[in-house]
Amino acid sequence: MNLLKNKQDANDLTDAQTYMNQVYESVEIRNPNEKEFLQAVRSIFKSLLPVFTKNPTYMEKGILEQLVEPERVITFRVPWVDDNGMVKVNRGFRVQYNSALGPYKGGLRFHPSVNLSIVKFLGLQQTLKNSLTGQPIGGGKGGADFDPKGKSDNEIMRFCQSFMTELAKYIGPDTDIPAGDIGVGAKEVGYMFGQYKKIRGSFEAGVLTGKGLGYGGSLARKEATGYGAIYFVEEMLKQKGLSLNGSTLVVSGSGNVSIYAMEKAIQLGAKVVACSDSDGYIFDENGIDINTIKQIKEEDSNRINEYLYTHPQAQYFDGCSGIWSIACDVALPCATQNEIDENAATQLVANGVKAIAEGANMPNTSEAIDVFLDNGILVGPSKAVNAGGVAVSSLEMAQNSMRMSWSFEEVDAQLQGIMKTIYQNCIIAAKEFDQEGNLIAGANIAGFQKVADAMMEQGVV
């Protein structure tokens, strides 16, 4: 009896593997040269094999074929005029990836690297991330290959207005709700909201999140992604009987996510010894002064090397990759995708790292993840670790709908609860499918199952 069952299990596994290989091959053929998107698909597929083995109905209903294809991809030109009167043209994107759980929800990224592959990978990640939050929101992502760095406020305003003039045709409080991301903060959101309001002729507060507090924004939204990441790290460390209190952290980046992850970690007793920007990184063995970083980055908009002017004992190094050579207990890559490669991962392991938490989207290469997992290092995947931002965006939408505002403490308490629930759901899903302790598998499985079940209940749409 047991032999027959084992043989049947082996057959089911083979069927599922064959099916997933075929789906992935079709994705490769249809999306050539989209390396970031293909990397995201591979990472998710790697976790889902036992799910399809146990639930063949997903195969019969073609859920995977539907999931890897965005519901809608919008590309458009964005003409704008610089301060010298010259016409410039950028390319805008919005990928409305999956609406099984609710209206599309995801940020807008303004950065020269933005292309269709990156926006699709982010949209796929966002779909599973939003599922993990437990909020009624689908997945989307967008942006433009516009670089706000070095632009005047008037140039940024003109670009945002032109961008929103086209994007406004496709979004709305019950359709698609963009937010900020890299290169898009409260200022840019404000310019876009103003243009949307002008086009629509009405005040629809719920169409964008990350707004200013004076016109529908939420307290704790700015802090949410960084704080949420640390709340998740707290839960991760408990798994090994460890604590943030007394731990040493290295955090890449010095933007919104990094700053508030550092702030919360320091509040909880950790020592952050390094952070970076696109030019290089600083190392302060006494612990980074977060107030100085805030002054440099949020108020003065200067480069990270300015830290040395007030903290001469610190060291500055050109380039960013060397930051992972610094010994730490916890590494938080919060800058961009694929910033930790196999060599950096090997060095982190050799220096005694205990946990990696992905504050950025897909900051570890697949080879780096293999190094961490092979050495028993805890890895918190981005779709779980950085879900705090979109979770509080959803809370902002709720406040907008009710025409009310919650206190910082109320929002922060809800954020903590959401992050703890995400962690527990990842642990439960991993254990259910014989991958106990693997948070990457757990996040992919938990996020996927909720979306897949909703898709099946709604039929082919």
Question: How does this structure look, described?
Answer:
This protein has 3 domains: 2-68; 72-204, Leucine Dehydrogenase, chain A, domain 1 (Rossmann fold, 3-Layer(aba) Sandwich); 220-461, Rossmann fold, CATH 3.40.50.720. The strands form 2 sheets. Strands 9-8-7-6-10-11-12 form a 7-stranded mixed beta sheet, with helices on both faces. It is globular. It is built from 17 helices and 12 strands. The chain is α/β, with parallel strands linked by helices. Keywords: Oxidoreductase. Belongs to the Glu/Leu/Phe/Val dehydrogenases family. It comes from Virgibacillus tibetensis. One of its GO terms (molecular function) is glutamate dehydrogenase (NADP+) activity.
pLDDT < 50 runs, ≥5 residues: 1-8
CATH topology of the largest domain: Rossmann fold
Number of E-state strands: 12
| Sheet with the most strands, sense and barrel status | 7 strands, mixed
- Strand order of the main beta sheet, please? 9-8-7-6-10-11-12
Name of the CATH class of the largest domain: Alpha Beta
**Tally of discrete structural domains:** 3
The average pLDDT value, as a whole number, equals 95
Taking Cα atoms only, what radius of gyration do you get, to the nearest Å? 22 Å
CATH architecture group name of the largest domain: 3-Layer(aba) Sandwich
In helices, the fraction of residues equals: 40-55%
- The rough form would be described as globular
Number of helices: 17
Tell me the span between the first and last alpha carbons.
42 Å
Structural class: alpha/beta
What is the H/E string?
A: HHHHEEEHEHEHHEHEEHHEEHEHEHHHH
CATH homology group of the largest domain:
NAD(P)-binding Rossmann-like Domain
What percentage of the residues does DSSP assign to strands (E)? 5-15%
